[in-house]
Amino acid sequence: MEPSNGTQISQFLLLGLSQALELQPLIFGLFLSMYLITVLGNLLIILAISSDSHLHTPMYFFLSNLSLIDICFTSTTIPKMLVNIQTHSKVITYEGCITQMYFYILFAMLDNLTLTVMAYDRFVAICHPLHYMVIMNSRLCGLLVLVSWIMSVLNSLLESLMVLGLRFCSDLEIPHFFCELSQVVQIACSDNFLNIIMYFSAALLGGGPLAGILYSYSKIIASICGIPSSQGKYKAFSTCASHLSVVSLFYGTSLGVYLSSAATQNAHSSATASVMYTVVTPMLNPFIYSLRNNDIKRALQRFLVR
Question: Do 20 and 46 form a contact (C-beta atoms < 8 A)?
Fold first, then answer.
């Protein structure tokens, strides 16, 4: 392929998780199964919450938003990967790559902000229980979701416009199963200053929500420790156990992937490890909430019986 700049590129090559032809049917079946489980599980959570009036509370409103985001998050990457495996092709167009990257960043940022909003909701519920319904009113809940969407859209647009300014040379192979921002930046032959700005922006907007979550849970833990009875402590902790599990899984896997990739500089290992937070975490979220939450279990049972 001839050397080209950012305006002449027509396509990239997604190398996927493995080059071995004999593994492609296994990868196709595995990812198709995980994708269907993710969509079905999160859809059931949304339907159960919307059909049960007892669950029309701020906590479950944010949970249904998280489930919707997880469906969209996985839908930006897995379908294209499955199509490429089925058609024995590695090609993704330049426009398709930028579009995929835009929506991937959008829903990843929404995941971060929604988990932060859910942590704030649990903070108010445990630290200010008497004022919970006054503080977490429907207007504030809607405003928090709206602000999360606006911030995510603007951040994703900014990152995508920066990528449009990159120049690419002859190496247009992306060692990943989707157009991941850092991998695309690494194959560019532009000035590193733009790359530094992109990484700084991603770190700032990713670290900010994490700091908010850590602050909320530090206050929650301090409040729980101040409860005199062990039964009261258990009841307070159980209200945020599911969310804490999801937060630990999402941030633990994503931070682990980026720290390990920075240490090893192995692109294929990074692509394989990124499956944990791009595919596995959205798939496990419905199970975590349905298994650890009696209200969700009862709502699912009523919905399925109906």
Answer: no
pLDDT at 12 over 60: yes
Nearest to 56 by CA among 1, 123, 136: 136
What is the Cα–Cα distance from 269 to 18, expressed in whole angstroms? 10
Give 48-84 pLDDT, tens digit per residue. 899 888 888 998 999 999 999 999 999 999 999 999 9
Strands (E), 46-145: 91-93
Could you give the CA distance from residue 207 to residue 247 in angstroms, rounded to a whole number?
13
Q: Is the pLDDT of residue 183 over 90?
A: no
CB atoms within 10 A of CB 66: 26
Cα–Cα distance for residue pair 243/262, rounded to 1 Å: 28
Q: How many Å apart are CA 306 and CA 153, to the nearest integer? A: 38
More confident residue, 9 or 156: 156
Percent of the chain whose predicted confidence (pLDDT) is above 70: 89
Give the number of other CB atoms < 10 A from CB of residue 232. Answer: 12
Tally of helices (H runs) and strands (E runs) in the chain: 13, 3
Residues contacting 282, CB < 8 A, separation 6+:
38, 42, 70, 71, 73, 74
Four-CA torsion 212, 213, 216, 217, nearest 10 degrees? -150
